[in-house]
Write a structure and sequence with these properties.
The complex is a heterodimer.
Chain A (H helix, E strand, L loop, with lengths): L3 H57 L17 E7 L9 H18 L3 E7 L1 H9 L4 E5 L8 H17 L3 E11 L2 E10 L3 H6 L10 E3 L2 H89 L11 H8 L3
Chain B lengths: L2 E6 L4 E7 L1 E6 L2 E5 L6 E5 L2 E6 L5 E14 L2 E10 L6 H17 L4 H27 L1
Parallel strand pairs in B: 1-8
Antiparallel strand pairs in B: 1-2, 3-4, 3-6, 5-7, 6-7, 7-8
Helix pairs in contact in B: 1-2
Classes of the chains: A alpha/beta, B alpha+beta.
Chain lengths: 326, 138
């Protein structure tokens, strides 16, 4: 029968092993999802590149437009923050890093006496800011690990609406996917659109004059909202890939830790079992000795202290005599 | 030299191939692109875009909104809502059409319903092209 200590350890090892199985499964799932998310990001690239390309063409053509999305506020009084997090945890520092980055922006705005407007994407950000009594203008959830363009459109519509009302500047806090092992929480200017930045991406070489139907200004006007959507979509996809990568890493660490813990506990358990066995043996020996010592004295009395041997030819008597000295 | 045709949606490249001519309807009217067309950018209407191949066959794509960009013999259709004929659910399109028509009967100025009707009609035209092409093949 195993000792109490050993039983407790055995149970802990079993539960750690179960945990390890779960974290291992989550790690594998996250690994395949990273690949899928990266593929989605790659598939989405041609569209955003084309749109950027068209806008570059328009900018190169010197199209002067005053579109609400390009409105540069001279005096920023209200800063909008869009923060992209996941719905589920167990992704290491993924959520807390990006939330902290967003909170810093809000605090900075508050310190400068500006107002703020907050849009959260993912349940983690919503929970965090709600708990700390921030005013949330809109929150979206349920799409963070596999965003669709429809989601991006919905969020872009809300963000554009805020910008059209009284928010002078929109910052987007998300996690940029650099490599499998490297993701970075960044805060990027989302609105107003930075047309100067677009212009610098101009392709080299001479280009024929582009015809616009119906006119450059109206093309740009209907293109800009698409551009906003596609930028947001790109950020969503990047964040999704980062989320899965972060989760994969966190779960790998958890699996490794579980394995380490299992080894340590197994050693401890073996030691406990050894101890228990040793103690048991000691007890048996002690008990046997005590018993034989008890039995020994009457026999001694009978056999040793008799002047004459009552059973001179019997071997059993000698054996009993030997046992008493064990 | 044939035209390179690409149908790019935000989530993927939905179609890519070579064609002889592309006919699209921009806001000011129908326009056909042949190889050697000058660079062009236009806003598309909700209307099928027809792609005519070298071998005389044709592909209709339902484009509900988007842009067409032409440069260097490459026609790129940028659209966030576009469907190839085999992706269209005819039953649903018909239901949507009937619903939009009902709404328009009650209120002939309903812009949403008008747009919905146009979308449904575009879908049905594109899907119809498929069924007629199949019938012709038999």
């Amino acid at each position: 029968m195993p000792g109490a200590q050993e039983r407790i350890l055995r149970r802990r090892i079993a539960s750690t092993q179960n945990m390890k199985k779960i974290t291992r499964a989550m790690e594998l799932i996250a690994a395949t999802r990273v690949v899928k998310a990266q593929m989605a990001a790659n598939d989405a690239r041609p569209y955003s590149e084309q749109i950027t390309n068209v806008i570059t063409n328009l900018a190169a053509g010197g199209t002067a437009v005053s579109h609400p999305l390009l409105r540069q506020a001279e005096d920023v009084r209200k800063v909008g923050v869009v923060v992209l997090t996941s719905d589920r945890g167990l992704a290491g520092a993924y959520n807390s890093t990006v939330i902290r980055a967003a909170e810093r922006v809000i605090q900075a705005a508050k310190d400068e006496g500006k107002g703020y407007s907050l849009v959260t994407i993912g349940r983690k950000a919503e929970g965090y800011f709600k708990f700390r009594n921030y005013h949330i203008d809109a929150s979206f959830s349920g799409m963070s690990d596999k965003p669709t363009y429809e989601d991006a459109r919905e969020i872009a519509a809300k963000v554009t609406e805020l910008f059209a009302n009284d928010v002078d500047e929109i910052e987007l806090a998300y996690t940029r996917f650099i490599t499998m092992g490297n993701q970075q929480a960044v805060v990027r200017r989302f609105l107003p659109l930075d047309t100067e930045h677009v212009e610098t991406q101009e392709s080299s070489g001479p280009k024929a004059e582009v015809e616009f139907e119906p006119s450059p200004a109206s093309v740009l006007e209907s293109l800009l909202p698409r551009y906003v959507e596609s930028r947001l979509f790109a950020a969503l996809l990047d964040a999704a890939a980062s989320e899965h990568a972060a989760r994969q890493r966190a779960m790998k660490a958890a699996t490794d830790n579980a394995q380490e813990l299992i080894v340590k506990l197994a050693r401890k358990m073996n030691q406990a079992r050894q101890d228990a066995i040793t103690t048991e043996i000691m007890e048996i020996i002690g008990g046997a000795e005590a018993l034989s010592a008890d039995k020994g004295s009457p026999e001694d009395l009978l056999l040793d202290h008799l002047d004459t041997d009552p059973f001179p030819k019997r071997v059993g008597a000698h054996q009993a005599h030997d046992h008493s000295h064990l | 030299m044939p035209l390179q045709v690409e149908l790019v949606s935000p989530e993927s490249i939905a179609y890519s191939g070579e064609a002889k001519m592309v006919i699209a309807r921009v806001v000011t009217g129908d326009i056909a692109f042949l190889p050697g067309h000058v660079p062009f950018i236009g806003i598309l209407q909700a209307h099928p875009v027809r792609v005519l191949f070298e071998d005389g066959t044709e592909l209709s794509i339902a484009v509900h909104q988007g842009f067409v960009e032409v440069s260097d013999d490459k026609v790129t259709i940028l659209s966030d809502v576009c469907e190839l004929p085999d992706q269209i659910d005819v039953g649903r399109a018909q239901a949507a059409k009937a619903k939009a028509e009902d709404t328009l009967k009650a209120d002939s100025n309903d812009e949403d319903a008008k747009a919905a009707l146009k979308r449904a009609e575009t879908r049905l035209t594109v899907a119809g092209a498929v069924t007629s092409a199949k019938a012709g093949a038999h």
